[in-house]
Structures are given as structure tokens and as C-alpha cells.
Amino acid sequence: MNILFIGDIFSSPGRDVLSNKLNIIVKKHQIDFIIANGENISHGKGINKNHYNFLKQLKINVITSGNHIFKQKETLEYISNSKDLLRPLNMNKSLPGLGTNIFKFKDKEIRVTNLMGQVFMDNVNNPYEAFDEIIFKDTSNIHIVDFHAEASAEKLAFAFNYDGKVTAILGTHTHIQTADERIMPNGTAYITDVGMTGSFDSVIGVNPEEVIIKEKLGLQTKFVPSTKPAKISAVIIKIDDTNNKVINISRINEY
């Protein structure tokens, strides 16, 4: 089985490149199951219902998110009925939506879990405590984790703690793809950050000009999503169908 995990989709350039290139990637790499982080797909913050439907029309199986999941108010209304749109499991339990779910695919049960880090992030519950409750009772064949976090050390420590207990732990949030993809000592696939599906000549998705004003002069300015050409940053997890073990993890970048 080949599972494609697409990094944070950012605004219209991210949507456009998916429309143009996703089918090519699926055919070229014989992709069976697709997961995408969609928390920035709507104008750089959040995911509205139209853009959720857009991703489903592209046959993306599961959509994960992160700290911007509820930036679009309508998400609070429709997420409860969208079992394939996940919000971080360790957010406040009173919030609507699922943080983990099992998806039946062919003869497999694929669990996807969305978690958020605590370092340099909005306040959330301890991800270890939230995840331990899932691990203890999980019976899925394959378990993919989107760990949405800022600090690379936090992501790596989390991965070492659960190495061998899940299929893959894939970092998101920084929008910069890292070159440390690996199969860990006990068999879990890992990368610190999958990267961004959006405008490459930007500052993590927005126009450099506004970011420079803030960083150089210390003035507050509105960040505007870039409209420059985009690329898809993603990873492919290859899994042995007989024993559900990871065979390979590889990065891809499609312009």
C-alpha cells in the first residue's frame, strides 16, 4: 500500500497546484490512500465548507489540521458531521470534531490521528496523555499521525517515544520540508516536517514584503497570501500489505 501525505495546503496557489498535479502524482506513484493537512487552505487560515468539498472532490480520504482549524467560524458548524476532517485530539474536549478516526480501506483499518505540540504553540492539553488513551485500545492495521508542532525537538522526542507503536509520525506546521525522513529503529516512519503545498517564492505562504516590514521595522501589518506559482510538498509511505510494516518513506516535490 502507498499512502500519500500532503503538507499544509496554503490558499489559492495550494489549491491550484493540487488541481493540476494531484492526479499525476497518484498515477505515477500508484497511490492508494491520501491524507492532506488542510488547515491553511482557506485564504491562509482555516478550512471553510467549500474548500473541504474541494478536497473531497479530489478524492482525498482524510483531512488533518492544526492550530488554525477554527479560524473559519463555519467550521464549528460542519466539522461534527465531517468524520474525515480532523482537529487536534489534544485541543479542549468540548470543541466539536474528532481528533482521531478509523477509515476502512479494502481489507485494512487505517487510523489517522491529529495532534498538536505545546512548544511555541497555542495552549493545548498534553499530547502524550491524549495519545496514550488512543494507543492503549487501538486495534487498527495502520496508524498515521499528523503531529502539528513548531519545535523540531518536540516532534522528534514524541516520535522516539512512540517508535514501533504506530506506522508513521509526520510533522506539519512549519511549512518548510525537512530532509530527515527515516524509518526509526523500531519501524515507525518519521519526518520532522512534510512541508507546504503553496507558493514556493513566499514566506511560508504569504508575500515576503509584509513579513519584512514586520521583521525589519517592527510594524504590525496584514499578511497577504502569495499568488505566485506553487508546488506540492508531500511524503509517500510504502507499507507491506502482508505485515503492515513500513518499507520506505520518501519526500516528493511537484511543481
What is the fold's blueprint, element by element?
Layout: E1 2-6, E2 8-9, H1 11-29, E3 33-37, H2 49-57, E4 62-64, H3 75-78, E5 100-105, E6 108-116, H4 127-137, E7 142-148, H5 152-162, E8 168-172, E9 182-183, E10 189-191, E11 196-199, H6 208-217, E12 230-239, E13 246-254
Parallel strand pairs: 1-3, 2-11, 3-4, 6-7, 7-8, 8-10
Antiparallel strand pairs: 1-12, 5-6, 9-10, 11-12, 12-13
Question: Can you walk through the features of this model?
Answer:
This protein has 255 residues and is α/β, with parallel strands linked by helices. It has a single domain (2-254), classed as Metallo-dependent phosphatases (Purple Acid Phosphatase, chain A, domain 2, 4-Layer Sandwich). It contains 6 helices and 13 strands. It has helices at residues 11-29, 49-57, 75-78, 127-137, 152-162, 208-217; strands spanning 2-6, 8-9, 33-37, 62-64, 100-105, 108-116, 142-148, 168-172, 182-183, 189-191, 196-199, 230-239, 246-254. The strands form 2 sheets. Strands 1, 2, 3, 4, 11, 12 and 13 form a 7-stranded mixed β-sheet that branches. A 6-stranded mixed β-sheet has the order 5-6-7-8-10-9, with helices on one face. α2 links the parallel β3 (33-37) and β4 (62-64). The protein is globular, with a radius of gyration of 17 Å. The mean pLDDT is 97. InterPro entries: Metallo-depent_PP-like, YmdB-like.
